[in-house]
Amino acid sequence: MSKPEKIISLPTEAIEIYKIIDKEKKISIKEIERITKLDRGKLEYFLNFLVSNELISRLSVVRHLISLIKEGRDAAEKQLIERRIVDVLKENKNIHFANLAELIGCDKKEMNAGIGLLKKNDFIKIEKGVITLAKPDAEINANLQAIIEQLAANEKVDTRDFDAILLERNLVELAEVKDTILETLISYNEVKKKIKQSSEISRLSPNMIRNGTWKDVKLKEYNLEVSPPAFYGGRKQPYAQFLDMVKRKLVGLGFQEMRGPLVELEFWNFDALFQAQDHSAREWSDVYRVANPKRGFLPKEKYVSLVQQVHEDGYDTGSKGWRYKWSPEKSARLVLRAHGTSVSARTLVDLPVPSKYFSISRCYRPDTVDATHLSEFNQAEGIVTDPSITFRDLLGILTTFAVDVAESDNFIFRPDYYPFTEPSVELSVVDPNIGPVEFGGAGIFRPEVTRPFGVETPVIAWGLGIDRLFMVKHGITDIRELFSHKLEWLRTAGIS
Amino acid sequence: MVSIKTSYTKIKEMIGKEVSIDELGNLLAFAKSEIDDYVEEEDMLVIDIKTSNRPDLWCAEGMVREIHGILGTKKKIPFYEVEPSEYKVVVDPELASTRPYIACAIAKNIDMSDYHIKQFMQLAEKIDQSYGRKRKRSSIGMYNLAMIKSPIDYKVIDQSHEFIPLGYEEKMSLPQILEEHEKGQEFGDIVKEYGHFPILLSADGLTLSLPPIINSNDVGRITEETTECLIEVTGTNYETVNVILNILCQTIADHGAKIFSVEIDYPKEILDRKDINPNLELEEIEIDIDILNKYLGTNLSVKKASELIEKRRFDSVSHDKSKLTVAIPPYRKDILHWVDISEEIAIAMDLNKIGPTEWKVLTTGSLLPETESENKVRDILLGMGGIELLTNTLTDPDILTLNVNIKDRELVRVENPITKTYSVLRDQIYPVLISVLSKNTHESYPQSIFEVGEVAKITKKSVVTQTNAAFFYADADASFEDAHKWLEFLLKLLITSYKIEKLEHPSFTEGRCGKIIINQKECGIIGEIAPGVLEKNQIWVPVVGFEIELPLIPILQCRIKETY
Question: How far apart are CA A275 and CA A326, in angstroms?
Fold first, then answer.
């Protein structure tokens, strides 16, 4: 290699790295990473200077990394079996074959291997079962032993001459490690004088601005082809961000927000919504019950007694009611909120007219968690009331949701059933690929629901399947992603 | 939701014309049902029915009844003749406090082909399971009439009574059936609660069944040869057993069976009159057409409303221009109020043809102040470089206790969890963040994560929901200083003065942990996670952070929400 003629200009960091490589002559890139604490991206950037100036070479290699397995570690600690046999023989001169294993403290198989090895190399003689040393002063496999001990101590050791024997004797295992080896082509001292801390510098420093040296240097052109270092900034959780957007849209449509507690009285979750106390939705398998405390306290007596009447005989609503004995104890039981409608039920107390409300609430259902079911989910739902409101207005509201929230003008209405509304309608948005996807539902609260709270105007109750909408929009097929713990997704998921 | 299997060919036969799967799907929507699956090779349709209060729809016959109305091929309440029979059931007063009601009818000339037996059994099973609340409220039985002699006794019997239960060969005593028979094991608790055994016996002593558990193997066995049978429903609610009997009779009559009535002889302890089943007397409800139009936003005449309701298989008569009297088919008990009729009329009009109105209720929208406050905190934490999390509030108790080295405590626990993984509501957030960090040790560091989310706590007076904010940072160089500077930043922006007092806490390293005090009130925790906790969670870098209760920061408008 001819000596470079011209001046080589290098950034300071590259010079430092050059010195490290030069000192070792040959070094793995991982080692430099460790020494310099530079991340891989930066390191590559500086190495590029050294390689392009032909000061070092880089070579991708697959190294075979030898490491001791249990048998090897045992040999390091207790010596190789043949050495142990020799040691015992040195002490005892001659030993009967039958006693040897016990004296050494090894099993027969291992001992036989040692004996075989010694015999093959004429270190011992065996006559009538008695073993004696043939070469009393010689050492056997001292180098091999030394290598094993060095390996055990994690020392740097060149095992090349011993690899075959180590493997054959089943003391080590071999792993393939990909690595990059850097080697100096010209020693640092040889080119030292020609190296100039580059006037073409990679970055501007505050000092350079202050003392005017920036005038003498040229900023190195940035390599636009290079990938930048990885960066993960703070960001909103994608689903939370979607929920924020839904809230903004609803606020834009004139809805006021409402919120309620996670743990709910059955009163608000069911009774106020005219769900009979033996309704199947109230069963063990359909709602999470709280173990302790099992019960809370019912709200104001006047509401409780009217809800009771409406269940038992319809109160003055003109309804037949459910015709059974309503139990306040059952109503005071605590459950995890099973649907967002309980928040609407609470809002019926002192409901202003006209008004529009929404809530996005966490709800719970005893489902086995899999790709399509969660034990908890978010429901967007709410109510609208006005003296003039009719069932056709309900269809109008659903139309607005389809167009403004689901952003679709292809949708259909179908009859549906909710225990607390009549009539009840399902809204499905027609996806060009999947077909109709259920997106929401609505109905007019039965008079049995509104009357006990003194609400005289019709109240439209609606709900939207926002979990589903988010999944369709983001092409997510596993609903568990919504509450993902995967940092990779949280850091990199795109925003729609 | 109820799901049934039936035959596509048979449905088409019953409708009386060719309908494609798509057309059928559209028609089924009028019966609040949809096709879940169609297996062409087996001619099998799986249909989901959305109503829990319309058991009459849980069979092909019921859905087709509605479809005929919509197609206009049939209207009004379907009619079938009921003739009297000699049969009578005598009810024991002892049953008054347990399972007092029974409804019976006789069906002759029945078509008990394999397909029909299976369909009928499916309907009976769905009704028992859902409407009958797993046979607790009601259960259905069907018997070979030829083997029954009147009067039938529905009575309480001694536990030594024996009979051969369906599907068995040996006689078993009643307690034995509860213990050993699979139906006894499944439904036995219902009878155990009664403290006595109800039984149905033929006049000659033959056992029909042990309601609601199991039929006998002789009288209670229906085969393809059976042409005459007794249908019976027992239960705890008079109206329920009767409407179920009506549904069954209607369904079987739809196939040309002849129905005969049975007299029920109730003692005065249960009902002060004799009862003749099936009771096909029609209940009526009066509709004020102006009120109906105002409710639906329509402009229907009485005549038009009458046509529409008859399409839904109701009868109607009108005596003046503003009122319509609607008669309810005897197989429906879901009509409680005129609003229920309003839905029938809306469905008959076709929801997609009624025409929505323009958006008209004008109000001002807004987020709650607490949501605005939470959003402010989220914005600051995002600015600190945090990755936001949205995690389950229902979690594993170990995550909240063992994994962060803190004692078990009073938590909102679920009484009926599916799995321990989701069995307790979190009362703070940082243990969940530690769990998240432990699942991401293969991702590059530093890792800054936060969540502003709801937690639930049990207090002396109530159970409360509130929002906490937790921010945690994991990196090789992380130390208390980092958490401290971020807390300082957050609270400075929230114009809140605070101090940190020394705290010993098992999740955190001793001497590197403190409680956050605002207005002399403890409202959060800050510190370095103890190495033991990191090791337990297999996190191999230091982790620092803080959690703070937002309702306790005066400038924010977050509230503690009490359940009661």
Answer: 11
